[in-house]
């Protein structure tokens, strides 16, 4: 609770894990994406500038980075889960997601069952990894540290398919027509922005910005920018 205190004065420091296009991705010297634009609205409201820290997802989702004051908030296409909510506090949900599967174009791997005896790539520390561990029976899961390594493994045939969030997979397929989203699993996820447990001052600012962005059209503008129809 209490007053709003930032880790670095004049900055709103964001922990994220690159690349997670179109939510956060490096473009030249800058990091751009849906989450970056959303957090920029928060920074603007606080009259500071956003500074991005690229760090492994494990430390983000465990609350470790926030607790160590590595950043003020975490915006990483991160799903709100009950386990995570024990170690960090979440803003209101700002984006709907579901797990999905990607494989090479024309692949017959259209369900987890079809992958029996095969290799399925997952991203370390993610809800997709948890989903695959629970639901893929008789499938060898192969763990990758980030999304780029995971998707390259699909392309090169190092794995037969991979599981990750629908938004990033559809973006990848759009740019890599030799791949295909072969299944969606309807896991009903929602992304939230993480803050240190008890940092209600910042969490309330974030919630207020999400609410006003949804009502004043800026959310739609950002959505259309990163998810062109
Ligand atoms: N939504 C998934 C989760 O929360 C994946 C997020 C991965 N994000 C990232 N920036 N690497 O587990």
TrEMBL record:
Gene3D superfamilies registered for this protein in UniProt: Periplasmic binding protein-like II
Entry annotated with the keyword Signal: yes
Signal listed as a keyword: yes
SMART domains linked to this entry: PBPb (SM00062), PBPe (SM00079)
Domain Solute-binding protein family 3/N-terminal: 11-229
One Pfam match: SBP_bac_3
Subcellular location: Cell envelope
Keyword vocabulary terms for this entry: Signal
CDD domains for this protein: PBP2_peptides_like
Domain called Ionotropic glutamate receptor C-terminal: residue spans: 11-229
Family: Belongs to the bacterial solute-binding protein 3 family.
Protein name according to UniProt: Polar amino acid transport system substrate-binding protein
Organism: Streptomyces clavifer
């Amino acid at each position: 609770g209490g007053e709003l205190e930032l880790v670095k004065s004049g900055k709103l420091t964001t922990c994220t894990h690159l690349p997670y296009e179109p939510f956060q991705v490096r473009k030249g010297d800058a990091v751009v994406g849906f989450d970056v634009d959303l957090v920029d609205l928060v920074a603007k409201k606080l009259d500071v500038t956003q500074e991005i820290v690229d760090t492994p997802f494990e430390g983000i989702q465990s609350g470790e980075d926030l607790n160590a004051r590595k950043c003020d908030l975490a915006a990483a296409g991160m799903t709100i889960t009950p386990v995570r909510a024990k170690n960090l506090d979440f803003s209101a949900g700002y984006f709907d997601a579901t797990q999905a599967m990607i494989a090479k174009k024309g692949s017959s791997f259209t369900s987890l069952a079809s992958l029996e005896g095969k290799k399925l790539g997952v991203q370390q520390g993610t809800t997709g990894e948890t989903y695959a561990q629970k639901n893929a029976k008789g499938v060898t899961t192969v763990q990758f540290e980030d999304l780029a390594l995971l998707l390259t493994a699909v392309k090169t045939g190092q794995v037969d398919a991979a599981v990750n969030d629908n938004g990033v997979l559809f973006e990848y397929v759009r740019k890599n027509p030799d791949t295909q989203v072969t299944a969606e699993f309807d896991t009903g996820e929602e992304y939230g922005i993480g803050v240190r447990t008890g940092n209600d001052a910042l969490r309330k600012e974030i919630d207020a910005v999400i609410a006003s962005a949804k009502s004043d059209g800026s959310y739609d503008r950002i959505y259309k920018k990163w998810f062109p129809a």
